[in-house]
Amino acid sequence: MWNNISGSIPREIGSITPLKLLLLNGNKLTGPLPEELGYLPNLNRLQIDENQISGPLPTSFANLTSMKHFSHMNNNSISGQIPPELSKLPNLLHLLIDNNNLSGNLPPEFSELPNLRILQLDNNNFNGTTIPASYSNMSKLLKLSLRNCSLQGPIPDLSRIS
C-alpha cells in the first residue's frame, strides 16, 4: 500500500488461492483488473483505490463468495456497467466504487445482497438512470451514497431499510 508500484496487476495473482487480502492502494497500477482475480476462493478484501486502473469490472468477481469488502476501489478509471452478477456474493458487506467512470443502470439485483451494509457509488456516470425500487429490500443497509451520479426520477420508498 502507498508505494510507487507501477504496471498492471499480473494475472498470476489469480493462482495464489490462499490469498485473503489484496491491498494495492495508492500506487501507479494501470490497465484492467485481471479476470483471474475472480478465481481466488478465499479473497475477502480487495482494495485498489488511488491507482489508474481502467476497464470494466470482471464478471468473474461473482465467484468471490468469501468477499466481504469491495472497498476502496475509488479514484480509478473503472468503466462500463456494474456486473449484476455481483449480487451473488452472499457475504458482501461493503461495495465502494466511487470516483470512477461507471455507467449504465444501477443493478436492481443488489437488493439480493443479504448482508450489504454500505453501497457507495458517488461520482460516476449513471446518466439518466433511477434508483431501483428494489433497494428498499436492503434491510441491513446503513449507508447508501449516490452523490453526483446524474440520477433522475423519484427516490423510491426506502422505509423498509432498518
From TrEMBL:
Pfam families according to UniProt: LRR_1
Predominant place of localization: membrane
One CC-aspect GO term: membrane
Protein origin, superkingdom: Eukaryota
Record localization: Membrane
Keywords: Glycoprotein, Leucine-rich repeat, Membrane, Repeat, Signal
Record protein name field: Leucine-rich repeat-containing N-terminal plant-type domain-containing protein
Organism this protein belongs to: Fagus sylvatica
